Structures are given as C-alpha cells and as structure tokens.
Amino acid sequence: MLDLVLPLQCGGCEAPGTAWCPDCANDLAVRDDEPHVITARLDPGVPVLSLGRYAGARRRAIVALKEHGRTDLHRPFAAALHEAIEHLLAWGVLPLPLTLVPAPTRRSAARRRGGDPVTKIATAAAGPRVTVAPALRYKAFTRDSVGLSSAARQRNVDGRVRLLKPVGGPVVVVDDVVTTGATLSESVRVLQTAGVDVVAALALANA
C-alpha cells in the first residue's frame, strides 16, 4: 500500500521497488585502483582525487540527494567514501590521524536540504582515527555557482569562505562535485592561511 501512495524508486536509475538497485551500487563501487587523481581547472595546490565521473547513476543520485530530499542515499555514498579513504590509507597517500573537512555550503541550501549532505556523508564515512570537522562556511550572500563560468565561479568564492574554528591536521577537504575547483582552491587557501596542514582534496564526483 505504501508503494502505491509513495512509489519507491532507485535513487540512481529510478527502477521501481528499491531505493538503491544492484546496478547502481555497482556503478558507485570503488574499484581496486580508485580513487583517481584528477586535474581541476583551478589548481588548489594539493592533490585532488575523485571517486568517479559526474555522470549516470552517480550524477542522478547526487542530484536526488541534494535537491530532492533523498537522505537515504547518504549511506551508499558514505560507504564509497569510506572505501576510498581506506585505499588511500593503505597506499600511504594519507596519514593517520586524519581530519575530514567538508567543503563549505551556503546556509540557505543546508536549511533547505535538512543539513549539509557532504558533512553527513563524511561523518558516516569516518573510522578509527579519522574525524570530521565542519569548520568551513560561506559568508552571507554568497550566490550559487551553478551555471557560472570558471572565472565567474572563482570570483564568486574569492574571499567568501571563512574558518569557523581551529582544525587539527593533517586535513583532507571533502566535496560532492568538483567542477572548476574554485571552491576547493578557496577552502584550501583559507585552511593553509590558518596554518592547517592540508594534504589532499577528495570528491564524490568530478564534472
């Protein structure tokens, strides 16, 4: 009866009767050689890694999570992020202890989404000696960067990210989607200016 009133659909492909189907779970799975280093158009000065391309089931799930209230999708993304961090630790790319700092989000967007999805995903992905510090925030009146060019995105965030509290390093900045790298670059700059040891940036997807 519940399915008739509120039809259950996969967050990645809209297949009926399931919140997250096996095919989409396979698309989101972190392979043995992932995450990969990517080249952002704006270089933040630290390695940038991504779990996969912003396309297909990954893209649809991120949109469903951020714009359509599919909070049940925190779990598969957190599992993928946890696996990616475990790989990087095993490869010696990341040290322990480690702090995950979510990239900033606009307060209006966080309120609309019932909280910041990236912070929730990072918190669920953390493990022994891996902590989360939601320490970055956009200043008031920062506009949404969707649809802006690379140069406009950079102008939009320049000087607009502030540090809310001290953070212990080493730090990895975590974001949902890397488009131009403007947000990551400003986030890394603010943290490094405060003396924080930022060792990498890690994204759920790259466009």
Query: What can be said about the biggest beta sheet?
Result: 6 strands, mixed
CATH secondary-structure class: Alpha Beta
The CATH architecture would be: 3-Layer(aba) Sandwich
Over all CA atoms, what is the radius of gyration?
A: 17 Å
Describe the structure.
It contains eight helices and eight strands, in the order ααββααβααββαββαβ. It is an alpha/beta fold and 207 residues long. It has a single domain, classed as Rossmann fold. Helix 4 crosses helix 6. The longest helix has 17 residues, at 74-90. It starts with a helix and ends with a strand. Residues 1-5 have low confidence and may be disordered.
Top keywords for this entry?
207 residues, Rossmann fold, six-stranded mixed β-sheet, disordered N terminus
Quick take:
The chain is α/β, with parallel strands linked by helices and 207 residues long. Helices cover 36% and strands 18% of the residues.
Task: Explain the layout of strands and helices.
Blueprint: H1 2-5, H2 22-28, E1 36-38, E2 48-50, H3 56-67, H4 74-90, E3 98-102, H5 107-112, H6 117-125, E4 130-132, E5 136-138, H7 150-157, E6 161-163, E7 171-178, H8 182-193, E8 198-206
Helix pairs in contact: 4-6
